[in-house]
Design goal:
single chain, mainly beta, 2 domains, five-stranded antiparallel sheet, 3 helices, 20 strands, elongated
């Protein structure tokens, strides 16, 4: 094993609650580990030298998902941090860094995965074929894209006010909200909600018409509309 010195390391996860958690080394539940390829049964926490590689390490099915990026807290003891050799990790393209002792994490940013740039299937023969999906993804840093905007939310729920959980999708206008309504019915009445006093919020734009707000928020009913077609409405 090659001992690493000072180096930025990242761990990507779909879980938002790992901040300050202690990671206990474990054997990954992947095909290579199940087949005993190399020394893949060695318990470890896997880090990567870049955010791109850390996201690739999550594999497939990430389009549109929020991924949380963590770093180790403090300096990892060099004796417990290793770059696995080809006999230990046959998939050297991943550039994995293994930490063999418990490690506390800190959340450094969160990103939205936009689309897959490239399929990347790594292959090894042991002597049977073993594969590992390691695609390249494009992503946007959500903590640096915040903008101030007025927001609208449309639903068929008729209440004076409503409290929404984080990560609810908003829109800049009633027209955008109507266009993106799921299971909408022409001829049905819907209700328009906005923040108090129609104030602006610091929101997260996406690559669609949607806006995201990552805190709980209370909205108030401002109008009632009637859906007249798939993309149009009139105020009641």
């Amino acid at each position: 094993m090659i001992i690493l010195r000072n180096q930025k390391l990242y761990l990507a996860s779909l879980h938002s609650d790992l901040d300050r958690d202690v990671m206990i080394p474990m054997v990954p539940n992947d095909e290579a580990s199940k087949r005993g390829l190399g020394k893949t049964k060695l318990p470890r926490t896997t880090f990567y030298p870049s955010i791109d590689l850390a996201i690739s390490g999550l594999g497939e099915g990430l389009t549109g998902k929020v991924v949380y990026i963590y770093e180790p807290v403090g300096r990892i003891n060099p004796l417990s941090k290793t770059y696995p050799s080809p006999t230990e990790n046959p998939f050297q393209e991943t550039q994995e860094v293994w930490c063999l002792t418990t490690t506390r994490l800190k959340l450094v940013t969160k990103v939205r995965v936009n689309r897959k740039i490239k399929d990347n299937i790594l292959k090894q023969y042991t002597p049977r074929l073993v594969t590992k999906s390691f695609p390249k993804w494009s992503w946007s840093d959500l903590t640096r894209e915040r903008k101030t905007s007025k927001v609208v939310w449309v639903t068929d729920e008729n209440k004076s006010s409503i409290t929404l959980k984080p990560e609810i999708k908003f829109y800049k206008s009633i027209s955008d909200a109507v266009k993106n309504l799921e299971n909408k019915k022409v001829g049905k009445e819907y209700y328009v909600y906005k923040p108090k006093d129609d104030s602006k919020l610091e929101i997260i734009p996406t690559d669609k018409d949607e806006l995201l707000y990552d805190k709980p928020i209370k909205l108030f009913q401002k109008a009632k509309i009637l859906i007249t077609s798939n993309d149009s409405y009139k105020t009641c």
